[in-house]
Amino acid sequence: MTKIVYLPHEANSLNLGFTDVLYEKSKEITIVHPKGEILPLGDFPGDFGKIEKYLISETKDADYLVISVDALLYGGVVNSRRHYLPKKELKKRLDLLSFIKNENPNVKIYAYQTVMRSLPFSQKQGEQDYYGICGEELFLFGQNEHLRRKRKISGKLYRQSRRVLLPVCGPYLKDYINRRKLNLLFLEKTINLSGKIIDELFIVNDLFAPYGFLGADTEKVNKYCAKHRDKVSMIPSEEGAGLCLVSRIILKERGESFGVCPIYPDSFDRKMDISVKKIIECVGAAVTDEKNADLLLFCNVKPSNEEATLDLVGTRNYADFIYKMKKALEDKKKIALTDDYSGEGGDLLLLSGISEKVGVFKLAGYSGRKDVSGAVAESLAESVLFFSDGNVKSHRKRIATRIYEDVGISKADKNVSESCAKSGKEVTVKAIIKSAQEIIEKEVPEVFDRFKIEQAKLLNVSPFRPYFVVSEKVDK
């Protein structure tokens, strides 16, 4: 049994809760991780002292360490943008990877780290407080500087923009630029460990803009990576990066891969295709055509802005999707579904149709998570297990868990919140559970008939988000 120690970037339901559900019955791997209370969660940084002790202890006999370098260095992705840690402390933390490798030379380290984002709007949440005051101006300042260095704008326009932006963002500019420089320095240090201490590295760049602070940093990162192309890969989102690495390990241990063909509706945002294909490659699978694919990944994603008015939520025709699913099963191919069309969880219209015409448990993987990259990684991680296990009880539980959370809870959360806002009542977990059960009973009865909500606990109170654990019903 392969032992994997996992330090995710955040203790959310994808990185902890569903990871436990995914691999609890695995015959291939044992995956262990620190308890949620010492891990990063939103604005709360991880406890480095306790994380350090945990990693040193658990990696002594581990085969792999899958680790978020942001969690190790800064206490999480959010804290990577808010910390005041000195270089000396950050170096000490990064050196822990070398120490672990020295103590257990056989452990393989699979890591991921983010390029610091640059939001194009002002927002305090997840950023320095001053970003809520002048975030947009900081973004535009970086864009203006980068465009001028690239000779994309005239000197006159450049100076005009500086005169407008500096009075607003000037007081915070030095801190912001120095913060980005420090993070970029340690990203470079991490990249330089590739092939020596780190065996595989994902660089996360989930909000790419061609010009600006992020665009300029990306150019530098690409130069850093030039010497390590065989060990470093780009991935579009930190959500799902850990799952991609775990899936990559499983396929490597099997000595296998599989071909995946993404299938889209008639109208969809073509930019999504780039991210979807990148996630497929990061998992360790190959992008192929429909004829040669082992797995058809149906991607129910949003239309482009131009097509959105012609393709309203609730009006999309899913007959072709469902027909192709049935045909694929007849051709002995596997099928999976990534469902982020509505932007508010899985699409009930599609899921109800699949339940009626195909059967949701015939899906190798399903995710209706709002983050597309995370949803693709999640459905592919399920599919990797389905290839070896088939439609067993643990697989059905995984599908039911995702449907309850991504469809049931997502819709129930919204419905209950709106109802309580009108009535003045307090939103409760009990009310959300009851509403979610009613939704699943009506729209996906095959899930409701076999599975129930076993327990619910709050992983995060902001935003209010219960986490479901389901169990199979026992016939009386």
Strand order of the largest sheet: 2-1-3-4-5-6
CATH class value of the largest domain: Alpha Beta
Total tally of structural domains: 3
Tally of contiguous helical segments? 16
Strand content: 15-25%
CATH topology of the largest domain: Rossmann fold
Distance between the termini: 36 Å
Specify the overall morphology: globular
Major beta-sheet overview: 6 strands, parallel
The ordered H/E elements are: EHEHEHHEHHEHEHEHEEHHEHEHHHHEE
Question: What's the gyration radius in Å?
Answer: 23 Å
Q: What is the CATH architecture assignment of the largest domain? A: 3-Layer(aba) Sandwich
Average pLDDT, rounded to a whole number, is 89
User: Poorly predicted ranges (pLDDT <50, ≥5 residues)?
Assistant: 306-313, 458-466
Estimated structural class? alpha/beta
Proportion of helical residues: 40-55%
State the total count of DSSP E strands.
13
Helices and strands in order, then pairings?
Layout: E1 2-7, H1 13-23, E2 29-32, H2 48-58, E3 64-68, H3 69-74, H4 87-103, E4 108-114, H5 131-149, H6 155-192, E5 200-204, H7 213-225, E6 232-235, H8 241-254, E7 259-263, H9 270-283, E8 286-287, E9 295-300, H10 305-308, H11 319-330, E10 334-339, H12 348-357, E11 365-367, H13 372-389, H14 393-423, H15 429-443, H16 445-450, E12 451-461, E13 464-472
Parallel strand pairs: 1-2, 1-3, 3-4, 4-5, 5-6, 7-8, 7-9, 9-10, 10-11
Antiparallel strand pairs: 12-13
Helix pairs in contact: 2-4, 5-6, 5-7, 6-7, 8-13, 9-13, 14-15
